[in-house]
Design a protein that fits this description.
One of its GO terms (biological process) is Ras protein signal transduction. With about 350 residues, this protein is an alpha+beta fold. It is built from six helices and twelve strands.
Length: about 350
């Protein structure tokens, strides 16, 4: 069975032309980082300006925006900029070269979203449709759209169509520093399976980035995320991101995170083409939930080892504080005159 076809219909916010007949993505404040840079003082990069890093909250389970590794730990969760939300390991702080962009206004209509209940279910259901019902739904859908982004029914009973995804990313993304495009073998291996990227270029995506994808009815939400990352050559872990459905009802905006196995095109067909009834948004996966089943056995064993070291260090610090306090009390007792 062939993989779902993914077709790019609109470029991401074309920037200034780099040359005759060529366009490229705008990489604001783009920098290159290398793990070995610190060994050569003459080549040390200039640290990023404007960041105000603070310890990340206890519910922060995410991937480092600098090195791309998962931020392990319970007590030391990493650091996060209070302005641009750049998140990194404690050890990576000294290597952050990307300037802080300040708080990002992504046009989220705060008046509408102020009372949003993310966990509230949407109005429409997702029933199992018969083949005749699917065919009728597709005819109704195609009759309501004002463009050529039609849905079509296939001989095997599946159907194809287009979904529009808005990229509302607050934190930066990383692409390979090399301009060499990925090979066909790299694309088949998928994100996270290719050779580790040693040099990365970080930049902030434009706030109005939009992408249309041509997908099958059986295309899952996780495959949509991976396809978007491949389009932009993003090397960040796909688990760093999540696909949300957005709906406007009664003057409020409701967001719901899609599970990995949900089928966006099926939701699009059931909701119809009205984007107020349903639209798709790619955001950071900052809900605090971690799908531990998605990690490999070596990663989980490594997590346990790090937890043990962190626990031992935390206990040592607690014992040291109590010992210091006990010593001061004993010194005060000895200093007091008897009687």
């Amino acid at each position: 069975m062939s993989e779902p076809e993914l077709i790019e219909l609109r470029d991401l916010a074309p920037a200034r032309r780099a040359g005759p007949g060529r366009t490229r993505l705008e990489r604001a404040n783009a920098v290159r980082i290398s793990p070995g840079t610190a060994r050569h003082p003459a080549r040390q990069p200039v640290l990023g300006r404007g960041h105000r890093f603070q310890p990340a909250g206890p519910s922060t389970h995410t991937w480092c925006d600098l090195c791309g590794d998962f931020i392990w730990g319970v007590v030391r969760k990493g650091l996060q900029c209070a302005h641009c939300k750049f998140t990194c390991h404690y050890r990576c702080r000294a290597l952050v070269c990307l300037d802080c962009c300040g708080p990002r206004d992504l046009g989220w209509e705060p008046a509408l979203e102020r009372d949003t209940n993310v966990d509230e279910p949407v109005q429409w259901e997702t029933p199992d449709l018969s083949q005749a019902e699917i065919e009728q739904k597709i005819k109704e859908y195609n009759g309501q759209i004002n463009s050529n982004l039609f849905m079509s029914l296939n001989k095997d009973g599946s159907y194809t169509g287009f979904i529009k995804v808005q990229l509302k990313l607050v934190r930066p993304v990383s692409v390979p520093a090399s301009k060499k495009p990925p090979t066909l073998q790299d694309a088949r291996r998928g994100p996270g399976r290719s050779t580790a990227v040693r040099r990365r270029t970080s930049f902030y995506l434009p706030k109005d980035a939009v992408k249309h994808l041509h997908v099958l009815s059986r295309t899952r939400a996780r495959e949509v995320i991976e396809a978007l990352l491949r389009k932009f050559l993003v090397v960040d872990d796909p688990r760093k991101f999540a696909l949300f459905e957005r709906a406007e009802r009664h003057g409020q905006v409701y967001l719901r995170k899609l599970s990995d196995d949900e089928q966006p095109l099926r939701l699009r067909l059931l909701a119809g083409p009205n984007e107020k009834a349903l639209s798709f948004v790619l955001k950071e996966n900052d809900s605090g939930e971690v799908n531990w089943d998605a990690f490999s056995m070596p990663e989980l064993h490594n997590f346990l080892r790090i937890l043990q070291r962190e626990e031992e260090e935390h206990l040592r610090q607690i014992l040291q504080k109590y010992s210091c306090c006990r010593q001061k009390i004993q010194e005060a007792l000895h200093a007091c005159p008897l009687g």
